[in-house]
Each structure stands twice: as structure tokens, then as C-alpha cells.
Amino acid sequence: MQSREMGLMHFVAALLLFCAGADAVINLKYGINEEMKPGSVIGNVTKDALKQGFQIAPQPPYLRVISNSEPRWVELSPAGILTTQMKIDRDVVCRQNPKCIISLEVMSNSMEICVIKVEIEDLNDNAPRFPTSRIDIEISENASPGTRFPLEGASDPDSGVFGVQSYSITPNELFGLEIKTRGDGSKIAELVVQKSLDRETQSHYAYEISAEDGGDPPKIGAVQLNIKVIDSNDNNPVFDEPVYTVNVMENSPINTLVIDLNATDPDEGTNGEVTYSFNSYVTEKTRDAFKIDSKTGIITVNSVLDYETTQIYEIDVQAKDLGPNSIPAHCKVTVNVMDTNDNPPVISLLSLNTEMVEVSENAQRGYVIALVRVSDKDSGANGKVQCRLQGNVPFRLQEYESFSTILVDGRLDREQKDTYNLTIQAEDSGVPPLRATKSLVVKVADENDNPPHFLKPHYQEMVMENNLPGSCLLAVSAEDPDLGMNGTVSYSIVPGEIKHMDVNTYVSINPSGRIYSMRSFDHEYTRTFDFKVLARDNGNPSLSSNATVRIVVLDVNDNTPVMTNPPLVNGTAEVSIPRNAGVGYMVTQVKADDYDEGENGRLTYTISEGDRAFFEIDQVNGEVRSTRMFGENAKSTYEITVVARDHGKPSLSASAYIVVYLSPDLNAQEPIGPVNLSLIFIIALGSIAAILFVTMIFVAVKCKRDNKEIRTYNCRVAEYSYGSQKKSSKKKKLSKNDIRLVPRDVEETDKMNVTENYSIDSSYVNSRAHLIKRPPCSTSTFKDLEGNSLKDSGHEESDQTDSEHDVQRGHYVDTAVNDVLNMTVPPNVCQLPDQDPSEGFHCQDECRILGHSDRCWMPRVPVPARAKSPEHGRNVIALSIEATTVDLPHYEDGTAKRTFATFGKDGPEDAERAELKGKRTQESQVCSPKANGGAVREAGNGREAASPITSPVHLKSPVSKPSSAYNTLKCRDAERIANHSLLRQPEGKDSEPAVREINTLLHDGRDKESPSSKRLKDIVL
């Protein structure tokens, strides 16, 4: 019974695995026939499992059996070959079960489960067989047709179709057979009376009953049936019901009432007394479970009923009276055993070890460590079980109905925790629920997952120099929390070099981590050196780490000072000093070197022996100086011993024997102190800085002077752009509002305060001029210049925002005035030389072939350069000059306001200018011009001041010399000037003195040698 239950449990578990499709479980199914010889191969489990992706270890044992329902019949070899153990008789193993399956569960090293099912096929190797060879039965002659008499059936160990399928009776004249199927699937036969019986005719009948199975060919079993006809008994017992059905709870106590049967017989006496009994073909199992009272017909429980073993019992009961020739009555009682929650869940662990499981600490999430099978013999809710893991552990339970797997569900670290006690709890759904627990110990196996760890990443050790080779310097230590060989640490020196030599020539290390010196260290050669120590475990693969070790070699006073100055010969040095050397005269400087450092290398100089009264020494720098004068009677040789001593412990020293000679030929010199290089360096830097500063000032002054000259040129370019339309690609108009002149006190200037410049296309004239003070250039503004720069930059038009354009605005008037004052006027020259009007001041012969450049139009640089007045940048010059050349343009009439911006800009339509032009061609010279003037605009309110200028002076040729302009001035028609000047009246009172002075100079200009003429020349020059 137990083996049958286990087989059913394994079958259910395998079915659940197949349905659930767990990733960690695969299913293999094999089929064999019964009666196979021992050792017959059922299948190659290893090969078949690999085809389904099963993970199997590369070396045996590939699989391990964790459960086997029939270990007597089949076995699995270490190589994974499934074979039979002995000859299998299915009729013994599974009896009449329709399915005969042997189940095995095997596990790989990767904790994967393989469920193997071996189905044993039935053979028709057994014929039906009756319990006895003859059946005797008595029937009353009063038995009516249709009366039934149960017969003991035949049994066939074969299952299914190979079992008993039918019965037959031979011959079948008076009696026949009716086939019935019981609850367990077996078939029984009942004898049925077909015709009336007559004892007087025939009292005995002999028949043969045959039982046939479903084989091909079928097998038959037979039994002899003997029927005896007896005298009739008037009445037979009769049951209240032919069939009864009752329910009995399992685990009911013994003698529990099942049913109280009742059969009645109307006869009196013994003929009416009824007895009860089980039919002859009631099985022994039923007879053991129940008993019947023969007198009362009460059926009671005779043994413990187990629903999980047998759920249904069928009991055939007969009742007959005690009279002669009694005919029994039959009824059928069906007993249903009712389930109760009397079975707690049963937990079975399927693992390599049912009590302890070992898992690697590197196991990933989802790794299966055990298979759990939970069963409950109860049915319904009583048998429905839920399973769970107790506690907070890095594992989880993957549950399927009554089958579960335990999986890794977190990171495992053996170094933190190496053992887990898992408690599995299963609980059914009965009322009250029943529980079961199972413990499982999980050991975390070590993996080499931790490299050695040094206690300190850096080690430093102080070692005195001159140490003994082989002495222990220090010890390093590294820990590895892994177990066994994974945690065994060995040490080595990382290959490297120290001072171009192998590190192993300096230090060595033993397996325990102690570091030894391989040589004697010298502080003066190697003060510190570093190397790395490697710690490696013995795992596979091994892990390692390293630490840095620094050895500091401490200094020892092992070096004696060495004298380096003065040079010694056999420990003696000779020096000479003049005999008349004064006190403090430096005789020599003693120097010594000590290769030690710190106090061991710090030296102190002393005079230990000799003529110590005549000399002293600086203890720090070693300078030996005289302490007294040497007279004429002093001896010629002095001797001292100088000692250089370090401050080590013990102290070391060196000495020098110095012989000092007094020489009469040497001149005494003042004591020379030590040269301070820092002071010399500072003085040199200061000198260089001063030179650079002076140079910068000079360059700045030079640039400022050149800048003023460039501004003069720009202003002349602007004037030229108004005076000559032939040389300009675009006309530039300058309105009278572009120049604002501020009247100031009139100052007479000499030639040292005059700005030099030349006009581009006008004849220059010299005249006495007055300077009018004006505000700085920033207050003078040019207006409406069409946004053009007055400087020829080579870019044609310039925007008003150009800095050059803005700079030139304040200097236009300076340029116009300086052009006149910088001329030299030679006498008696009235004829101008002819020249191409397109040529400029700097034109050369190449210009006629290659063309002109900007340089041609630039004004001549004045030579020599004249000093400029401090007020030069703020002065405006008003001129009273009139030219008499043939093509000189003339100012407009006096009714129009004139400014410097209109100087030389009159058009040919002016009638007055035409009239003057005609008269100038006839008249030769002017002797006394009258003082009248033009106008000068005030900067503040725009009023125009009277000016003696009646017309601009234009040179016929730009290269005409200033002397021609001066001669032209002498030839001017004074009367014409006077008449024309009367048309304009002075409006500014600051201009009247200037007009009077200029007219006076013009009047005196006839005489070349007159003082006035000289004064004008001085002003011009």
C-alpha cells in the first residue's frame, strides 16, 4: 500500500512539473514491457536531457537520483543510463491499475531537476481464474423466473482489456448469466432463473461457467457449477431495499454503526427466523473493514477506515430463514468513506542532501538549490496546501500547487554569513487548518571573490644609514577573508628599479611579509626609495593587491669635513697680504664641505693654534681677517691652524695649516665685504627700468609731434578737397558752420611758434598775421561733411564714426593758417614757374609713368622743425592776404557772411570776382593796401568778425617756392584791396588790431629792406 501511495505522489508531482513548465525542471518519459530481463536498458537519460537544454556536469557523476518510486525494479547509473534491476511483473507492481508508472527525480550539479517517468506496458500473460474449481448452489423449486443468485467471480491479474471481460454458461436452457461491473471496475456474474423448476422432474443440474479476458487471442478460465433443486419453503426473506448507500467518516471508531439491515419473512417459527451474512465473493479487505451481526443485520466498522486508502466499499449481504430449503435474499450495500482533515501536509525535500544544501556564494538570482514537494492525503480544501519560507533570508519559494522550488533571491556573501537555517511551512485549507514545517540548512560555499587587503595602503619606515645587510626593516600584512587556499596569502616584491638597479638588490621579502635589507644604505647616495609589495592568494584564479613601501634613510654623521679653500698642499696653504694691511683686512676665506645634512653637515670655523692674536675668523663663513696693524718691525711670516667642525654627535672636524706672508710690494686695500649679488641684481633691474621709462617718454613725445604734423596734412587735404574739384572723385562741401572760431586776446607770434604746411593748389603769400586764441580742438566742430573723413586713407569714403575723421575736425583752421606763416618770401619774384597742376609736392619722374600715390599729396615736412608754442593747439590765425595772379578766385560781396571754410571756394559766377580778375590783368603792383577785412566767426554765438582777407591765395603750381608768393604780395594792387575791403566791416572787435597791424606791414612791404618787411619775413619764416 505504501509503495502504491508513493507512486501516485510521484506521478502527481511529475504532472504538476510538466504543466507548470518550470524553467529548472524537464521531463523525460520512457515505456517498457513487463517481463523484461534484468539489466535491460530503458534509456540514456544524460543524452536525452542534454537535447532539452539540461545543464550537466562535464565529468561523472552527471546526475544524482534524489527519489525513486521503485528502486527494486529500475536504477540510474552514474553515467546516466537507466536500466532494469530485475524482471518486472506488472501484475505484481501495479496489480490492476490502468497505468503502471515508475517515477524518478534526478538532479544535476547545477541544481536542475529532471523528472523521469517509466511506464510499464501490460502483457496478456494471465488467464481468468476462479477462486474454486466447483461452485455448489441450492435453489428452491418455487423460485420464479428472474430470480437472481450472485456467483463468485473470476479474477485476472492483467489490467485493462487483458482482465475479465465476459462470462458465459453452458448450456443455458433453464439458467442464464447477467454481467455486472463493480465500483473498482471488476466484473461479476449473477445466475438468473429463466424457467420454472420442478424437483420431481430433475433435482440436479451441472453447468460450466467460463470467464474470458480481452486478449488476442483471449484467455479463458472455467469453473463447474452444480445446482440442486430442493423442496419449497412457503416464504423467503425479503430486504426492504435491494441496494443501500451509506456514508461513513474516515477514522471512525471501531464498532461505529454503518447500517442496520432488515429482511422480513412472514413464516412463523424457524421458517420465519432470518439470518444475515456476507456473500461468499465479498473480498477480504471488505470483511476486515466491516462486520455484520447475523441476527440483527447491523453492519459496523471493524477497523480504521482511511479515505486516502479506500474511498468506496461494496458489500453483498444475503438473508435467509432457518427453515428447510430456504431461499436466500440478496442486497447490496455501498459504503462511501468520507474524508476528514486528519492528515497534515507532508513536506519532502528533493536535493543532493535532504538535510543540508550547499550553494556557492557567487550563485546568481534564480539559482535552484532544492526541490520541495508538499502533499496532503486529504481531499478538497483539506488537501489544498500553501507553502512559504519563514524569516528574512535571501531565498524565495517558487510555488506550484503541491510542488515548489527554493531559489536564490539575493546576494550571498560567505564572508558576511556562511549558514542559513531555512524553515519551510506548509498549511492546508481545512477547518481547522493543519500545518507542517521542515528545516533545511543552507551552507554558503566559499569562492575566491576577495583579493588580499593590506592593513595600510602605504608603509613608511625610517632606517639609519650604514645598516647591516640582511637586517629586518619592517613587516607588512594583508588579510583575505576567503577560506582555505582562497585565503592563503603570499608576498613578493613588484619588479622595479631603484637608482637604475633592480629593487631586489635593495630589499627582499619572505612569505610571511617581513622585509629585509639586501645592502647597507648610504644617506648621501639614497635618501628615500619606494617599492611595491604584492600580496597574492592561492585561489584559482588568484587575486592580488599591492601596497607602497617607502624607506627613509636617515643621516648619520659619517662624513668628515673636507677643506676646499684655500687650496691645500699636504694640509698647508700659503697666502700673502701687504705689510701695511689695516685692521679687518681679509686674509683669506676658509671653506669646507660636509656631505652630511642638518646638524651633521653644519660647520663652524675656529682658529685653534698659531698666531691667534693677529687674526680672527668668522665662525659661519670662514673669513680670516687681521685684528691689528703690522708694523715695519713685524715678522714676515705668521702661522695659524683653522679647524672646520660639524655639529654631529660625535662631532667630526678637519683642519688647515695656513702660512701668512707679509709682502712689502702689495698696496693695502680697504677691507672688502662680501659682494651682495642680490643688491647688484636690484640695481641692474632699476637701471634697465629707468632706461625703458626714458625711452618711452621720448617715443611718446616724438609720436605726439608726428601726430600733430599728420593732423596738419589731414586738414590740408580737407582744404584741397574744397579748392580743387579736378583732383577729387567726389565733391566735398564744407559749410560755414563747420568751423567755429573763438575770439581771444591777440598775440603776436614769432617764427618759433608757427606751424609749417603748404597748400596743395594755391599760391602762397606771406603776410604779417595775428594769432587768435581758441578753445581746444574738441570744442571746434565740423558740420555736414557728408560723413567723409578729411584724411585720404585709401578707402575712399569714410564713415563719420571713424576715429580719424573725428580727430581732424579740430585742426582744419590750424592747417590753413600755418600754410601761410611757414613760407619764406624772396624778393622781386612776380612770375610763377609753370607746372603740371596734377603734380604734388613729392612728385618725381616716376609719377609721370607709373602714376601718383598718396605720398605725392602729402605736405612737405618742415625742415628744420620749429618748436611749437604751447598755445599752438588752441590758436586760430586770421590772414589779410590778397593775390593778384590771373586766375585767382575772389570772395563774394560783403553782403554774404564768410568763414574760413569758404576760403578759396567762390564760384566763377561772381560778378565782382570777374571785374577784379579783369583789372588784375592790367595793373602791375600795389603800393599801399588798405586795411579792411573779411569775417571771422565766433565760436560761441556764430557772429562773424571782420577779417582783412578778401580772397584766398592760390598758387598756380603746388611746387612754387614761397619766395614767389612773397614777390606776388609786393605786386598786389593795394587800391583794389582797399576798395574791396571796404565792402566788409569788422564785426568782431578782437580782429581790428590784427587788421591794422597786417595793413601796416603790407604798406611797408614795398621796401624790401624796410623793418616792416623784415618783420613780415620773420613771421613767415
Automatic annotation (TrEMBL):
* Membrane topology per record: Single-pass type I membrane protein
InterPro entries in UniProt: Cadherin-like_dom (IPR002126), Cadherin-like_sf (IPR015919), Cadherin_CS (IPR020894), Cadherin_N (IPR013164), Protocadherin/Cadherin-CA (IPR050174)
Major place of localization?
Answer: membrane
Q: Where is composition skewed (Basic and acidic residues) in this entry? A: 792-810, 906-922, 1003-1021
**What keywords are annotated for this sequence in UniProt?**
Calcium, Cell adhesion, Cell membrane, Disulfide bond, Glycoprotein, Membrane, Metal-binding, Repeat, Signal, Transmembrane, Transmembrane helix
Per its UniProt entry, which superkingdom is the organism in? Eukaryota
What compartments host this protein?
Cell membrane
Q: Where is this region: Disordered?
A: 780-810, 904-964, 1000-1021
- Give me the segments passing through the membrane: 677-701
Q: What GO molecular function terms would the record report?
A: calcium ion binding
Name the chain's protein.
Answer: Protocadherin-19
